[in-house]
């Protein structure tokens, strides 16, 4: 393993993937919170013509020119999308679809035209579609480091305005913040993240790197700062892990493996996160259901009847379900078998109702008295 980690190519791949994970995680957290998951997809596809334009201007596969061209067309696409949503009747999803289709179609046309030209300088240019991490050199990492540094500094300097705009854009506008300019700037920084990952992940898969770490971190964190930090760490973990897996299993492309690991982290977070995970939520519901005794259901009917001044007050089963957060029909049926409640008819269009029997009233009153004595004794 140590010999593998000393490999020059693997070091470049892991460092580049970690950089992509960090910038994608930081900016993707804002995209997830602002419900702009498709924005990364549109910007990634719109960056393809910029890759081609940068290549044509440089006359060779020079990363600085290519990333500059990709950033330019990505920002232009973002501004076009904003203009379409603000100045036409198109909704955001329609503007995203139009921008994505237009950018990708133009990129494919330019890519085809370049590849038909004579010479070998355009070799490997199509790797920007799906990424080619193994072709990353130390010189390619320097522009990536600059872009990551610019994005992180921008987020740090604009932390409070970005935070306010993310959670309450209307209040941000009322307080005098330039919300529209902040939105454009945040979109441009997301375009920076997309451009950073073109070499390794590619146009097609880059949108997953923008969304997956942020979606995973959202399940674990309740604060924006914690979410941004965890999202960056998860993105870097996916990048480094993808580089290692692709190195240990020759023939696997690094970009797709990185995306698969990031998606796996998101799925595990959706399932296992303590507060928002599906499995803990299921367990809490099961625990609550198992610990909701028939006496508590009976006490609910008793309290409602007492509030209405009628011990035979008809209580709708749906109201009892909503109060306890569960289906209470099994407990109500068990109470009916004990002769404590009986089903009752109320209005034809309403749900099933239940009312206390004389025995049920006495039992509920005794249960309430026991609880008062227990709590009064400090239990």
From TrEMBL:
The keyword Plastid does not apply. It is a multi-pass membrane protein. Its main location: membrane. The keyword Transport applies. The chain crosses the membrane at residues 12-33, 42-60, 66-84, 96-114, 141-159, 188-212, 224-249, 255-274. Keywords: Cell membrane, Membrane, Transmembrane, Transmembrane helix, Transport. SUPFAM superfamilies: ABC transporter involved in vitamin B12 uptake, BtuC. It is found in: Cell membrane. Gene3D superfamilies: ABC transporter involved in vitamin B12 uptake, BtuC (1.10.3470.10). Belongs to the ABC-3 integral membrane protein family. This is Metal ABC transporter permease. The lineage of its organism: Bacteria, Pseudomonadati, Pseudomonadota, Gammaproteobacteria, Chromatiales.
């Amino acid at each position: 393993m140590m010999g593998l980690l000393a490999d020059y190519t693997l070091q470049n791949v892991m460092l580049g993937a970690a950089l992509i994970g960090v910038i994608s995680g930081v900016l993707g957290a804002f995209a997830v919170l602002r419900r702009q998951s498709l924005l990364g997809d549109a910007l990634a596809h719109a960056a393809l013509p910029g890759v081609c334009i940068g290549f044509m201007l440089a006359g060779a596969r020079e990363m600085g020119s290519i990333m500059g061209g990709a950033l330019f067309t990505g920002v232009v696409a973002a501004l076009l999308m904003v203009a379409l949503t603000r100045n036409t009747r198109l909704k955001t999803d329609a503007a995203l679809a139009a921008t994505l289709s237009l950018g990708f179609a133009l990129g494919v046309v330019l890519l085809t035209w370049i590849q038909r030209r004579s010479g070998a300088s355009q070799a490997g240019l199509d790797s920007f579609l799906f990424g080619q991490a193994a072709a990353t050199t130390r010189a390619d990492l320097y522009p990536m480091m600059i872009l990551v540094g610019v994005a992180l500094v921008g987020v740090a300097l604009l932390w409070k305005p970005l935070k306010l705009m993310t959670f309450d854009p209307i209040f941000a506008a009322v307080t005098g913040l330039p919300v529209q300019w902040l939105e454009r700037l945040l979109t441009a920084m997301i375009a920076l993240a997309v451009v950073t990952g073109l070499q390794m992940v590619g146009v097609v898969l880059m949108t997953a790197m923008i969304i997956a770490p942020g979606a995973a971190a959202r399940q674990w964190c309740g604060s924006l700062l914690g979410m941004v930090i965890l999202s960056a760490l998860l993105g870097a973990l996916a990048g480094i892990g993808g580089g290692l897996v692709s190195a240990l299993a020759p023939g696997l492309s690094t970009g797709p493996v990185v995306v698969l690991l990031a998606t796996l982290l998101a799925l595990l977070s959706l399932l296992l996160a303590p507060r928002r995970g599906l499995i803990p939520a299921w367990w809490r519901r099961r625990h609550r259901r198992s610990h909701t005794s028939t006496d508590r259901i009976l006490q609910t009917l008793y309290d409602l009847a007492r509030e209405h001044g009628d011990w035979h007050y008809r209580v709708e089963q749906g109201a009892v379900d909503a109060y306890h957060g569960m289906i209470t029909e099994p407990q109500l049926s068990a109470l009916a078998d004990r002769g404590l409640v009986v089903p009752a008819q109320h209005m034809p269009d309403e749900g099933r109702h239940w009312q206390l029997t004389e025995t049920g009233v006495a039992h509920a009153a005794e249960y309430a008295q026991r609880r008062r004595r227990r709590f009064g004794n400090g239990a």
